[in-house]
Amino acid sequence: MTPPAALLRDPTALLPRLAAASSHLRALHAHLLVSGRLASPSHLAAFLASLASSTYHLSYARLLLPPRPATLLAHNALLRALARGPRPGLAFAAFCDLPLPPDHYSLNFLVRAATALAASAAEERSAASSGVDARLVPVSAHGAAVRWGHAADPHVQSGVVSMYAALGDAAAARAAFAEIACPDVVCVTAMLGALAAGGDVDAARDVFDGMPRRDHVAWNAMIAGYVHVGRSREALRLFDKMQGAGAAVGEATLVSVLTACAQMGALDRGKWVHGLLRSHGMRISVTLGTALVDMYSKCGVVVTAMEVFEGMGERNVYTWTGAVSGLAMNGMGTECLDLFKRMENAGIQPNGVTFVAVLRGCSMAGLVDEGRACFDSMKDKHGVDPWLEHYGCMVDLYGRAGRLEDAVNFINAMPVKPHEGVWGALLNASRIHNNVELGKYALDKLLAIESENDAAHVLLSNIYAESQNWNGVNRVRGMMKAKGVKKVPGWSAIEVDGKVHEFFVGGKSHPRYKEIELMLAEMNQRLRLQGYNANTKEVLFDIEEEEKEGAISMHSEKLALAFGLIALPEGMEIRIVKNLRVCRDCHDYTKLVSKVFNREIIMRDRNRFHHFKGGACSCRDYW
DNA sequence: ATAGGGTTAG
């Protein structure tokens, strides 16, 4: 990577290697030298910037710096390139080597470098990427701004606030913001973004509401803040207000709106955005295209997602990962693997997130050997260190396929301590394959790490219920009561005419509840004629009613399903999004409804899609 | 002559 010291002493010796790397840079250098333009600070700065954008050419770029510059321009250009480059930590070294006192530009680039460093440290989960302590970097950049008297520069100020935000330190961002005498709209937006990034969207909203002037970026920041914490409904409501306020709607906003639609499974709204893009002749950028792929995937329309994907001129790792993940979610394991291979062939380096997606795809489709090969290739072929999530995926892969022994052996062979996700995967596998002993074992391990995991308790209870062990069910219920573990209430959502209706377990608050009740009665009757019997095995104990069948029929997806049958025209598929996993009974029930009512039903649960048609489900009853 | 806030995958 870095050229040997001998080459650094004699830059001309670098030229052949430079040529091998990129002949056009060498030609450009020669041209600039001969024409005398390298003496011009702006040309030199531009050339330095282009050199410094590659780590390989960096040392060469440094040699071109004028020894006694009359201006900081060339140095600042180098700082800027380093800050934007793959190793932003290098900007710190360059900053220390400045032969002149830094100006407000230099400080700005230093702060940007610190931001990039903080962001990459957060992403990589390791602070050692540049040999600089990632937690000290922002403080020292901020300190340098104060030390050199540029802390009052508005560009530096907003940079410092968003730097602390990138580090995830909202308190430090607040403190820095409090120091600003007259924060302008940019600084306020940076503060708003810092609060939102820290998860405190309500505080962000207060800042937003208090702004004397809001430009489109401020609107975007607030909308994105809601999306960030999953409050997509409020995001869309704010987007409506934004349009009412006459703010300019651009790409960034629409990306956030698409993400909100994806979260909610709001296909109509998502399609509306897509139509808007087309009617305005907007170019589908990588980001926008990725958001579209994600939206269609999360609404269960894989075909359109892939059409958008194939039509994109440029795709990055986000785009590919989004598409791979979309196929995985929809249970298309083979297609998912094929796309992953295409990604490899296209020379796009997969990362940890990509592997989570492929492994999940393999797991959903029961492709055990293929998944194992992917896992092994992570480190060997791609240099990606497995995260705990990947180990969890592997346990899931073996476990779902019924290879419980392999799953246990895999856990025992793990080089790191298993986390709750690993035991959770084993617990779920025990449920699928009715292994009470293993389930108890997994839950014990899990509770030792995280004693209040509601989903884990529910899983164990379901294992007991499957084997008619009502004492076991009661025991788990008692454990939850004693520990105060609350089950997350289930909800299902369905979009009708662009409006998303939400149903909660046993909820009767919908304005059309009377009709829904009638429809439920009709459904139950027609299903019973087909031999349906409420499956009372997996009774979730959020319902205290005695009558088990009655309780089960009130699960939120059934309410949503009944409403869909009433409110959506015949022949139109019913799309339901729910926050938890579908229970066995609702799954059986929905399969039958798809047959008896001759409706296609697409249900997104916490983990994946179920495409019901003609009495069968795309998950092949394997989830 | 160089610079700021908002956008994509689990």
Structure commentary:
- With 623 residues, this protein is mainly alpha-helical.
- Among the domains are: 214-314; 492-617, no CATH class.
- 64% of the residues lie in helices and 4% in strands.
- The chain has 33 helices and 6 strands.
- It binds one DNA strand of 10 nucleotides through helix 4, helix 6, helix 8, helix 10 and helix 12.
Low-confidence runs of at least 5 consecutive residues = 1-20, 126-130, 540-549
Describe the main β-sheet briefly: 6 strands, mixed
Q: How much β-strand is present in the residues?
A: under 5%
Number of strands: 6
Contiguous helical run count: 33
Mean pLDDT: 88
Helix proportion range: 55-70%
What characteristic shape results from the CA principal axes?
globular
Q: How do the strands of the widest beta sheet line up side by side?
A: 2-1-3-4-5-6
**How far apart are the termini?**
46 Å
The class by helix and strand makeup works out as mainly alpha
| Rg of Cα set | 28 Å
